[in-house]
Amino acid sequence: MSLGRISENILEDILSRVDIVEVISGYIPLKRAGRNFRATCPFHHEKTPSFMVSSDKQIYHCFGCGAGGNAFNFLMQYERLEFPEAVEMLAKKTGVILPQAQSQDDRVVSLATQLYKINELAAAFFQGILNSPIGGNAKGYLLKRGLKEDTIKVFKLGLAADKWDSLINHLRAKNISLSLLEKAGLILSKDNGGYYDRFRNRIIFPIVDIRSRVLGFGARVLDETLPKYLNSPETPIYTKGKNLYGFNLAKDAIRENDLVVIVEGYLDFILPYQEGFHNILASLGTALTLEQARFIKRYTNNVVMVYDPDKAGELATLRTLDIFIEEGMSVKVVSLPEGLDPDLFVRKNGIDKFKAGILAAEGLFDYKLKVLKKRHNSKDIEGKAKISSEMLFTIAKFKNEILRSEYLKRLADELDLREESLWQELAKVKEGRSVSVSNQHAVKHVPLNINPTEKLLIKLMLEEADLMNRVKEDLEPADFSDERVSRIVSILFGLIDQGVRIEPNKIINHIEGDEALRVICETTFMPEISDTDKEKIVDDCIKRLKAERVKLKRQELHDQIKVAQGLGDEEKLSRLMQQFHDLIKKR
Length: 587
Hints:
This protein is about 55% helix and about 10% strand. α11 (about 265-275) links the parallel β12 and β13.
């Protein structure tokens, strides 16, 4: 969707209809804390919750890392959206109709938008081929693999024709340039000039993001040709380490069940999903990344890994487990019988046995130890050293001291080693990784260091229009010494002149700069002030700021007078002295 220019009225309409508590609680659990809500911050690691959400003011702020803003800001930061995308998401949620851009010219439509559109057209083209007479063999193959007609439609499966230029000719007829097709990863250039289709004579699996936009494609052969699977390359809209297959369909079930099962391939996902097991994702044959783990953590802390029982699968699982532990998530593993992947297991044994296997999943400690014992002899000294080294690296990642202690005791028993020796080795492991871990999770939180009087005035001005007008009568933006506060005051005065109602969550749309945004959020969450005291406090603050302004100006004149005396500039000295005396009289 291409958005036209969005007016402030529309943005305010959206914010008026949305409840920030409802939005944020859809991602993280909130607990009531007086009139506000509190949570552990989703944007940095912390033990004591410092993330606050105000239902009254409709803003959030973390006192640990400084993150804050309104509902738009939260979606932008949490979902990593651009501002127009966050606006579009909340507009759909609230029923607000956004203006359409009048021009769809390639010069004004972003590259990403063009690539999404091209991928949608390609997916539809592949679907058409699969459902045509040409696709009879491929359709028969999918049905033989246990897929139903409805499932093929839901997942938008398709077929790439056995031709070198089938997709090129189709999309060129729609006036799509070859350079854009190449950027989308759909075509390849020939050594002697020209282009050809990347996908030919393969079943097509569209890869979509959580918003159901087509990012790229996976393609499987119908015979024993190698490679069996061919995937889209990384493009401006598709990064393998950022996406998981099926998230758009599974996210609600993952949240409801507070559990996600992760399998490896497309059909390993599709078959269980078709049979009613919906809290499942596929990693597309690659080891999971930290970014994917954090994406999953938005919906659940509980993960069950299901991989092919081969050596490569075990190694991938071991690498992944540590990522989840680092993120404080609970991980278990299912080992399928040899020769069976999830797809074949469900077809042979049924979905109930698959579910039973999930319930009986093995704890990560037992699984990793079992794998390591198969690789190394746990009876000789060198084997014990290799196994304990691998296990300690994982144990060190647990943040819970009780878990760490218990796993260490179990490791000592399993390998017949002295517990004290393992504690010593664990200390070395922790010492070796302490710098990188602390750097990874460090939060650069520099105090705002704002004059308390100025900070207090901002809070009061944001709360009541009458107090805003009172301040405006006696002070100018320049009377505020802090540049960030002065900029905010200037914006507030301008909005008052335009007759705009002052509300913190809507004012944020007018504020530029992270620190100025922090000022708004932090002052909003300052302790409440009794209505009977507000006017007196405002008067006192105004007097104090005026006095501080005079004091500062007097010091500046004093310094300039000393310089003029040193230079012997009598004319300038006389002028400065007169200003100094006028200032004293004024005070």
